[in-house]
Amino acid sequence: MSEIRQDITTNEWVIIATERAKRPHDFTKPLKPLPPEFEPKCPFCPGNEAQTPPEVLGYREGGTSNSPGWWIRVIPNRFAALQPSQVECEGEVKREVANGLFRKMDGIGRHEVLIETPKHNLYFPYFTDKQAEEVVIALRERYLALRNEPNVKVVIIFKNHGDQAGTSLLHPHCQIVATPIVPQSLRRRTAVATRYYDDNGGCLYCDLIQAEQKAGVRVVEDGAKFFVMHPYASRSPFETWVLPKFHSASFGNLDLDAAKDLGRVLKRITGKIFTMLGNPDYNIVIHTAPVKEEDEDYFHWHLRIIPRLTMMAGFEIGSGIFINTALPEQTAPALREVKFQ
Ligand SMILES: [Zn+2]
Ligand SMILES: [Zn+2]
Fold first, then answer.
1. Which domains does the chain have, with CATH numbers?
2. Integer Cα distance of 277 and 107 in angstroms
3. Which long-range contacts does 189-194 make (Cβ < 8 Å, 24+ apart)?
4. Ligand nearest the Cα atom of residue 302
5. Ligand 1 (ion): which residues have CB within 5 A?
6. Residues belonging to the active site
7. What is the mean pLDDT of the segment spanning 161-174?
8. In this structure, which residues have their CB less than 5 angstroms from ion ligand 2?
């Protein structure tokens, strides 16, 4: 019989199709061929800096802005979902309600792209440790800058890798969006965590790490600073969570040592995923507290890696319930045992 499991962090349900569950090694694939190291038409490749909006951050030794020599570069997204206000001194974001039901507000915010490497074909697992560390340091730097912008309520950091994950641009990059609203999905996560805190007097995620350590069956890596696991109610095969082992509500509170550690953890874990699943399309998302709740005791930031091995179809759209065809108790040990470097 299949199982319906509840995600304690969102109250959402998933169906774990245990009977038709695939074995972890059924997902194994050889690595896809890599694109060239330099792609003349790619706006993110060195030498093409003029094709992007002027950079807001560049890690480079000497040299000038918007010219080659960088190893990490952050630019405004040319096709930004949200734009900075044109008004010099920004006031409140304009909100309107028509007929009581049709609400809208100005699309004020920031939408940036972090180019992770000058090399078109160098994916995160194959970075040097230093490069992996610096990507997280640069994300942190932009988080801290954007959280201070007027009207910014949340800074959302994510990565789309591959067609199935929502990008056809192969050059390794992440995106950062600062929004003037708190998204409902984050509201729900913080509400569930707040209720847990009120009922139990502690952080849900700190308790979850302890419970998973005790259960032991879904642990991928139990490191010095970060805990990596496949959640009990995984929504898709090989969904992987990375949580700081120290309580912290916001990614922005990460100190430099922990940021570097996270870079190395991500390199190792994505490397294992690449090795086992053959460079799959995947998303990474960071769930971090709203700016005004960065120091609260009830929320605990974390990062999710979601390999896109299955499609969201009618049942998922109709019900919000995902059907997972793999058992996290099987995928976590399989991933743990993969040798990568
Ligand atoms: Zn490129
Ligand atoms: Zn916590």
1. 3-80+105-337 (3.30.428.10)
2. 38
3. 189/9, 189/10, 189/287, 189/299, 190/289, 190/290, 190/293, 190/298, 190/299, 192/8, 192/9, 192/10, 192/11, 193/9, 193/298, 193/299, 193/300, 194/298, 194/299
4. 2
5. 39, 42, 44-45, 120, 171
6. 173
7. 91
8. 203, 205-206, 247, 300
Q: How far is the CA of 159 from the centre of ligand 1 (A)?
A: 16
What's the mean pLDDT in 154-181? 94
Interval 210-264: pLDDT, tens:
999 999 999 999 999 999 999 999 999 999 999 999 999 999 999 999 999 999 9
* Position 129 pLDDT exceeds 90: yes
The string of pLDDT tens digits covering residues 262-284 is 999 999 999 999 999 999 999 99
* Spatial separation of the C-alpha atoms in residues 197 and 199, rounded to whole Å: 6
Rounded to the nearest whole angstrom, what is the distance from the C-alpha of residue 45 to the centroid of ligand 1? 4
For residue 91, pLDDT beyond 70: no
Centre of ligand 2 from the C-alpha of residue 66, in Å: 40
* Closest ligand relative to 117 C-alpha: 1
* Distance from residue 205's CA to the centre of ligand 2 (Å): 5
What is the bridge-based pairing of β-strands 13-16 and 322-324? parallel
Q: DSSP letter string over 140-154?
A: HHHHHHHHTSTT--E
CA of 174 to the centre of ligand 1 (A): 13
d(CA 72, CA 294): 26
